[in-house]
Amino acid sequence: MIETLLVQSVGVGFVIALIAGMYKANARRWGRLASAYRVSEQLPSYSESAMQTIILVGGDFGWNSYRGITTVGVAPEGLLLKLMPPFSTFHPPLLIPYSDLSIEPKRWYLIGKSHQCTLRRVDDVRIIIDDKVLEWIKSEATSLAVETR
């Protein structure tokens, strides 16, 4: 009885560790962005649009899609990106200054009209956002009297 319980506990622990390791490895692009743009203090006040999709590409093979789990925020200090719980594990909120963003049109597979954001401090990771999200960001930034490019 004890032996069976011990074997099952080790098996469950191994599966949990494996899932956590895979999840941490999947957060590598977000981690690169967090090394430069992590929100170090309390989040600033911002307008938000929840359940948006962003895609992170670059750095190595593949991409990371955060489909419907991203909250995009517009603050006077910059563009805020955060994930909904429980997906926010290993993914701290990001605050990217507008001056670090370079945006250009980019067709991304099935999304349709989209834009690619290149970042000044992390040039090997790019953010793909939908055209509608970019229009929302611009309208909110205009209402905050923030100059965007």
Notes on the structure:
There is one protein chain. This protein is an alpha+beta fold. The protein is elongated and about 70 Å long. The termini are far apart. The mean pLDDT is about 85. Strands 4-3-2-1-7-6-5 form a 7-stranded antiparallel sheet, covered by helices on one side. The protein has a single domain (about 30-145), classed as Pleckstrin-homology domain (PH domain)/Phosphotyrosine-binding domain (PTB) (PH-domain like, Roll), CATH 2.30.29.30. It is built from 3 helices and 7 strands. The longest helix is centred in the first third of the chain and has 25 residues, at about 1-25. Keywords: Membrane, Transmembrane, Transmembrane helix.
